[in-house]
Amino acid sequence: MNAGIYYRVSTNEQSTGMQEKAIQDYCERENISIAKEYRDIGESGSKVSRPQFDKLIQDMRNKTFDTIIVYKLDRIGRSLSHLVKLFEEFKKKKIHFISITQAINTTTPEGRMFLHILMVLAEYERELTIVRIHSGLDRARAKGKKLGRPKGSKDKKRRRRSGYHIRWTT
User: Which CATH superfamily is domain 2-122 in?
Assistant: First the structure.
């Protein structure tokens, strides 16, 4: 097996170190060669498009590897519709998928069933997080807290976008 490895963390304060160590140990133990590694730092799993994830998919389409390995299913996505489309493409391209912490094996009917159950649970977990955030915001508003940045003289003119572009496009 020749594998493309994908690591993702949701915030810039987090590290992929734990995922890297676990996956590299797994590959060594299972005698899997690593073709390329992809890291998305500070990227949400709910996004369909992420810089390194997009490169992983492009390399998969170019047959750079025959297996994709992740630490956990929710590293590649949390939207059920996105995951279903992704795994349909994996199947068409004959790409194996391994999640080392969940023992997912997409070559068996049982493994595919387990994968579908996990995809539903990943989306459910994401939706619960959204509900909790909205509940917390509603609770803060009910207590009279003002949310957002303070209003002031700076709000009278259009804000510059350069800081945004420098921060998020580099």
Answer: Resolvase, N-terminal catalytic domain (3.40.50.1390)
